[in-house]
Amino acid sequence: MRGAPQRPARTPPSAATPRPEPVTTPTAADLHAALLGRGETVAAAESLTAGLFCATLAGVPGASATLRGGAVVYATDLKATLAGVDADLLSRVGPVARETAAALAEGIAARCGATWGVGLTGVAGPDPVDDHPPGTVFLGLAGPGGTIVSLLRLTGDRAAVREATVQAAVAGLLDRLG
After folding, report:
1. What is the homologous superfamily of the domain 28-177 according to CATH?
2. pLDDT, one tens digit for every residue, the chain (178 residues)
3. Backbone angles phi, psi at 137, to 5 degrees
4. Where do the DSSP E strands lie in 10-153?
5. What distance in Å separates the CA atoms of residue 46 and residue 83, rounded to the nearest whole number?
6. Distance from chain centroid for Cα 151
7. Which of 47, 142, 135 has its CA nearest to residue 94?
């Protein structure tokens, strides 16, 4: 056809053009597989997540091989009685503190006979607690090589803060496992 506009030829994607790797979020299944591969176990003392971390791990088939157990320590006194946090420490620094998260992780690992302990304490919102704004979370991880605590500053409603805390705990423990 004379005078008809010509369409530009389509250029096929080049095999040499690298495609970006998809960004993946570590999952509970990834954590289970990593723990299983090392013959290690985990237990958690959960305050603001109220069992969500353990429930997430328990959703993976075969979780009983890696999840030893956990405790919901929502009330401050239960941090001492169930997870073994020193009552004097709680009186001195309060329930939402770096030291409390470390003690939760160490205490629950010892009480459950787990290789790894996770201690989760913070403020899900909507109101602040002891001058800590909503979204303030201390994530304690205790295991071979010692205990580390991360301070998280999360945003969103209660559900979003709790979910993000669990994701951070899964990712943090996977990172420690290497």
Report:
1. CinA-like (3.90.950.20)
2. 455 555 555 555 544 555 555 556 889 999 999 999 999 999 999 999 999 999 999 999 999 999 999 999 999 999 999 999 999 999 999 999 999 999 999 999 999 999 999 999 999 999 999 999 999 999 999 999 999 999 999 999 999 999 999 999 999 999 999 9
3. -135, 140
4. 42-46, 67-72, 116-122, 136-143, 146-153
5. 9
6. 12
7. 47
Token pair listed for 32: 């289970």
| Per-domain residue ranges of the chain | 28-177
Model-wide pTM > 0.85: yes
Q: Is 82 left (phi over 0), alpha (psi -120 to 50) or beta?
A: alpha
Structure tokens at 117: 């302990």
**How many of the other CB atoms lie within 10 Å of CB of 72?**
17
Distance CA 109, CA 120 (A): 13
Helix (H, G, I), strand (E, B) or coil at 132: strand
- Which strand ranges, in their side-by-side order, compose the sheet holding 42-46? 67-72, 42-46, 116-122, 136-143, 146-153
